[in-house]
Amino acid sequence: MSLKDFSTEKRHQLDKIWLPAECMFQSAFVCALLDLEAHAEQRIESPPALTEAINSIQKARGMCPFGDWEPFVHLRRTPFRKPTWSALRLWRLVHEHSADVLESRNFDCVFYDEYSLLEELGSRRVWWRVCEEVTKAVARSIPLIAPPTWAWPSNEQIYETVRRVAVERDYLDFEPDVEAVSRVYQFGKLGSRGTSSAL
User: Fold this and answer.
1) pLDDT tens, position by position, 43-86
2) Packing angle between helix 8-40 and helix 47-61, nearest 10 degrees?
3) Angle at Cα 115 formed by Cα 114 and Cα 121, nearest 5°?
4) Of the candidates 126, 159, 123, which has an alpha carbon nearest to the alpha carbon of residue 141?
5) What are phi and psi of 169, to 5 degrees?
6) DSSP 8-state class, residue 3
7) pLDDT tens digits, residue range 20-50?
8) What mean pLDDT is predicted for residues 140-151?
9) How far apart are CA 136 and CA 122, in angstroms?
């Protein structure tokens, strides 16, 4: 399917499909920002300070946890670009008091140095929740982009969906959890035979 073959209606459908994953990513970033503020014991407001916070959060996401050789897997499973300082300030206004942020913070943690702080930020459950939402979004996008002829989408169809979504939504390249996408897609197909669909 070429770019010109992708209709406005399908683009609108993609917008709706990917909104929950984008909102969860925004919530994850806000959660990390609030934890940085708690550690610094001051609100981070200025553009230079917000930019520094964004870089710290990105560093936390790319750390190799607990002596491992590979960074947190959620980094390569997430297609979203880091925010600008102005975007993060807006995200905080939207999500600061949301249930997703409040449930994801750990108010009992004490950080003794920068490394322990960043390791904790990068290991938060909320980043894996982002991955779960991305997996659902990929599965829901498959019928729009590379509909399978059988019950299960092939790896090729999943990766074709990922490539096309990245182009349509200006995402970074990312590595989907192929098995998880297939399971979510199949569960949605089974659910659609009843009163509602899981996809």
Assistant:
1) 999 999 999 999 999 998 887 665 555 667 778 889 999 999 99
2) 100
3) 90
4) 159
5) -115, 10
6) G
7) 999 999 999 999 999 899 888 899 999 999 9
8) 83
9) 22
Residue 44 structure tokens:
């981070």
Comparing CA positions, the residue from 174, 106, 105, 186 lying closest to residue 139 is 186
Number of neighbouring beta carbons within 10 Å of residue 71: 15
Both tokens assigned to 20: 């929950």
- d(CA 186, CA 179) in angstroms, rounded, equals 11
pTM here? 0.85
8-state DSSP, 108: T
Buried (b) or exposed (e) across 140-153, using 16+ Cβ within 10 A?
A: bbbbbbbebeeeeb
Among 62, 66, 83, 186, residue whose Cα is nearest residue 136 = 186
Q: Which of 56, 65, 90, 61 is nearest to 78 (CA)?
A: 61
Closest to 181 (Cα-Cα) out of 77, 81, 100, 80: 77
**Smallest Cα–Cα separation from 111: which of 189, 6, 35, 194?**
35
